[in-house]
Design a protein that fits this description.
heterodimer; A: alpha/beta; three-stranded parallel sheet; B: two-stranded antiparallel ribbon
């Protein structure tokens, strides 16, 4: 308690001050409100719009080509043309794929992703994929998702087609240059679409502006068109080096302009209540599946809080299959406090089973005083075929705000194996 | 080499800690300053990038590297420091690997100061892996030779830093003129030695050695704790991985040396006295010498290069051992040849009379050298180990010459030494084993043989006593290798995360 008070004193008085939220705390059903609470602290202490002050989470100012900043745009309302468009929540992928009716789903095309490993509730995702008639996966490696495919199309690597890219952490636009020819029969996704469009009889005029023709020249023209529409940097500018995104503010909100109904920072937000159904104030609400909030019988059976963070050794489920990474990241481990391990007769390095009603994963235990008793942690991204897929245990739930996936609302039990 | 070409594209200037003017010069001009690594313990996160960079740069098999990372206190036990040591080769100013290599396979590159091993000259004897206090040279069983960090000598010649330094994301690992590097010569977990390693460490700052916040007990945060959980008093058991000694010698791997050293002791002991020599026939001597030589060659990774083992007599006891072995073989053969019936008398008429004595001397010089070879290790109680071949040779000499005071003294010395090892807990094997080695293996047969000086003892009893003594010696020499404590500072894992 004393430490919390000390922290409050410091944050209230030291100027400037910044809160770095860290990626991971957004993976709870109450994380939106939690984030709002922390942002309120930043606002209350006057740490907005000033150098060295503020809030660090993601800097999406470089996402100038899409509307990722506004998650509602991922769920477009029906357009008047009558065409059925359904957006399925990433968080509830398996469940919603199965629940889709009139018409039901028959076909999946997967590219640039690994949903069988990375989406919550793996059993559900597998069930949904296996209920389909046909699956195409565009992939470089034989991932868990690729294994479900009827047809695997070899995917290009990032080195094999030029593009303009953005980032999560900085406000620069960059040119990602093509440096290699795709090997063998590999072709970029845009060329796969073009060839499919040929086969499906989609007229060329209908494709214009939506996908580039095959070939580097067409890709370049496509990129130029989009850059011109921005009024932003040219390809030549980007060839010189990264360019700061148009409209970028070095210091967020230094102009004092806030895109809220009142034009001000809204500690009480009717808009948040209306759009997301949360309390207008940033309230503390227990997570749906938490150590205090879950039903008593659930808490008794599954007393440990399961966190599944990212690791520097991968980008989600990418790269650990490479020899150079496997050299120092050979197998998944579960971080567990020595007290929790002792209570279960688990010695360091022993194989354990992490499980709940939804599924289980087998892994070696790593005793760690640095983790809080009552919590266990295993990094996400290990493949099922690598023996460590954590999402067998997670459930598809959306976060309270932003349609995120609440991976960390997850209670498990751990037991020795053998 | 594509890895090198890519590396050149991202070149980092040489000597990131060196002042201008003292920086190395390349292209044929002498590099004056001695280079070294610097590791800042406060910045190293044990991420492994340095180890991977080395593997990529040197095109090593995946899973191997010439740089090794050890994590101390991976369980983050409170009150103990948590840090990582990333070590490759320290290119010591007085390099034990180079000093002790019998084959002269190491040389120092004057331009970069690097201690370099020539894989075409290495005979795979692994002696350098015993001599190095830092476990830098590692034996590659597939290739049959040793390999280690080259200081990225090929990169230094182009004005670049070693690949590991270039990839370190935090700047923990740097490189430059050793004189210009700040820091300590050693740190906890880094063995101190007289080898003068070219490395400096920035030790953990006081505040970084333990977390500032006391670890939370579950009850303090009012979370439910499973009933009956006792607070773990110490989780030192959870430290596995950090200090696992890498076993470099096993009885199986050193088995040929057991045979070699015991045969040497037997032959040298027998050749020591005229009575003993009379027990050896010329063909028997040659056969046993051939067996001993074969046994020692079996220990090598590259057996056809065995002749190189004698090249470093000026510095390496291993070379001296090989030299004395050869000398003993020649002198002993010449001494025994006249006793061989088929040999023509005129051939050996001109042989000098001092030949047998010089053979005896060469034999004991061999045994002395054999014992000296093991001084690079840290065998518990090696200072006076009962299985020292010199002692065994004396006992054999005394037995074969019928000198009870001599062999009795040697046997007593062995018994005392062995007892001392057992008392210190340094002896391999359980109490039953110790009793067996000491009793039936030494004291009992010695007593029987000594009694035979005074009273009549049946020949069978004599023979079996000798057999038991021999068996005891074999067992003790095997124990010697089990107790060998060859320093191995590193772990084979790169990151205990």
């Amino acid at each position: 308690m004393a430490q919390i008070q000390e922290l409050a004193e410091l944050f209230a008085t030291v100027r400037p001050a910044v809160i770095n939220a860290g990626f991971g705390m957004q993976r709870y059903t109450n994380s939106g409100q939690a984030m709002r609470a922390m942002i309120s602290l930043v606002a209350l202490t006057g740490n907005v719009g000033k150098p060295g002050a503020g809030w660090i989470f993601a800097d999406l100012q470089s996402h100038v080509f899409d509307a990722v900043r506004d998650p509602i745009a991922s769920f477009p309302p029906e357009r008047p043309d009558g065409v059925a468009r359904v957006s399925i929540s990433t968080a509830r992928l398996g469940e919603e794929m199965l629940a889709t009716q009139d018409p039901g789903l028959r076909f999946a095309w997967v590219e640039r992703g690994n949903p069988v490993t990375q989406n919550p509730d793996t059993h559900k995702v597998l069930e949904a994929f296996r209920a389909l008639d046909f699956r195409v996966v565009v992939e470089q490696f034989h991932t868990d998702t690729a294994r479900e495919a009827d047809i695997i199309l070899p995917a290009k690597t990032m080195f094999e087609q030029s593009d303009v890219i953005n980032a999560y952490w900085h406000p620069y636009l960059q040119l990602k240059q093509k440096v290699l020819e795709p090997p063998g029969e590999v072709m970029p996704e845009s060329e796969i679409y073009w060839m499919l469009a040929d086969r499906l009889g989609i007229p060329v005029e209908a494709r214009a502006g939506v996908m580039p023709e095959p070939g580097d020249a067409a890709v370049e023209a496509f990129l130029r068109r989009h850059l011109d529409a921005l009024g932003g940097p040219t390809l030549e500018d980007l060839r010189e080096g990264p360019v700061i995104a148009p409209g970028h503010q070095e210091i967020a909100f230094s102009d004092g302009v806030f895109a809220t109904p009142s034009g001000r920072i809204e500690l009480v937000s009717e808009e948040a209540a209306r759009r997301w159904g949360v309390s207008p104030l940033p309230s503390y609400d227990e997570p749906e599946e938490g150590r205090r909030s879950a039903r008593a019988d659930v808490r008794a059976a599954y007393p440990l809080h399961f966190m599944t963070p990212n690791t520097k050794n991968r980008i989600h489920s990418q790269f650990n299959n490479l020899e150079s990474i496997r050299m120092f990241s050979p197998a998944p481990t579960l971080q567990i406090h020595p007290d929790d391990a002792a209570a279960r007769g688990i010695a360091n390095g022993e194989n354990v089973r992490v499980f709940n009603d939804r599924g289980h994963v087998g892994v070696a235990a790593n005793l760690d005083h640095g983790i809080r008793p009552g919590c266990v942690s295993m990094t996400n991204g290990w493949w099922i075929t690598e023996g460590g897929s954590v999402n067998f245990c997670s459930l598809g739930r959306e976060t309270d705000m932003g349609h995120g996936a609440a991976f960390h609302d997850n209670l498990v039990q751990v037991e020795r194996v053998g | 080499m594509t890895a090198g070409a890519v590396a050149r594209g991202g070149a980092v200037a040489l000597g990131n800690a060196a002042a201008p003017g003292s920086a190395a010069e390349v292209d044929g001009r002498t590099i004056g300053a001695r280079k070294g690594f610097r590791l800042d313990l406060n910045l190293c996160t044990g991420c492994g990038a340095c180890a991977v960079a080395c593997a990529v740069e040197n095109q090593l098999d995946w899973g191997t590297s010439w740089r090794f990372i050890e994590t101390f206190n991976p369980a983050h036990e409170p009150g103990l420091p948590h840090y990582h040591l990333s070590l490759a080769c320290n290119h010591c100013a007085d390099a034990p690997c180079m000093n002790h290599c019998p084959a002269l396979a190491y040389h120092r590159d004057d331009l970069t100061g690097a201690v370099l091993l020539n894989p075409d000259q290495c005979i795979g004897c692994k002696y350098c892996t015993w001599a190095c206090p830092y476990d830098a040279p590692r034996f590659d069983a597939k290739a049959g030779v040793v390999s280690k960090c080259t200081f990225c000598h090929h990169r230094q010649l182009e004005g670049l830093t070693p690949a590991c330094v270039g990839q370190c994301p935090t700047g923990a690992l740097t490189f430059g003129d050793l004189d210009a590097l700040t820091g300590d010569a050693s740190v906890a977990g880094f063995p101190e030695s007289a080898a003068e390693p070219s490395i400096r460490f920035a030790p953990l700052r006081g505040g970084a050695s333990a977390p500032a916040v006391a670890p939370q007990v579950a009850s303090e945060v009012a979370l439910e704790v499973a009933p009956g959980v006792a607070r773990v008093a110490s989780s030192r058991a959870a430290h596995s991985g950090a200090h696992l000694a890498r076993v470099k010698t096993t009885l199986a791997s050193e088995g040929p040396l057991v045979a070699f050293t015991l045969l040497a002791a037997l032959l040298a002991g027998l050749m020591a006295t005229p009575t003993g020599r009379a027990l050896l026939t010329f063909p028997a001597f040659l056969t046993l010498m051939a067996a001993a030589g074969t046994a020692s060659t079996l220990h090598l990774g590259r057996k056809t290069r065995a002749w190189r083992a004698v090249l470093n007599v000026s510095r390496s006891w291993l070379s001296r051992e090989v030299a004395f072995f050869s000398l003993f073989g020649v002198l002993g053969a010449l001494s025994l040849a006249p006793t061989w019936a088929p040999a023509p008398a005129w051939l050996f008429a001109a042989l000098p009379g001092w030949l047998p004595s010089s053979a005896a001397a060469a034999g004991f010089a061999l045994l002395f050298a054999v014992d000296r070879v093991y001084t690079v290790t840290h065998t518990r109680g090696l200072a006076f180990h009962s299985a020292r071949v010199l002692l065994t040779g004396v006992m054999v000499a005394g037995l074969s010459a019928g000198l009870p005071w001599l062999w009795g003294a040697a046997a007593a010395a062995k018994a005392v030494s062995y007892g001392g090892r057992v008392a210190r807990g340094a002896a391999a094997g359980s109490g039953v084993w110790a009793g067996a080695r000491l009793g039936p293996g030494l004291v009992l047969p010695a007593a029987v043989l000594l009694a035979g000086q005074a009273i009549a003892v049946p020949a069978a009893a004599r023979a079996s006593s000798l057999a038991l003594l021999a068996l005891g010696e074999i067992v003790d020499r095997c124990a010697f290798y089990l107790e060998l404590d060859v320093p191995s500072g590193g772990v084979t894992k790169y990151n205990a995360s």
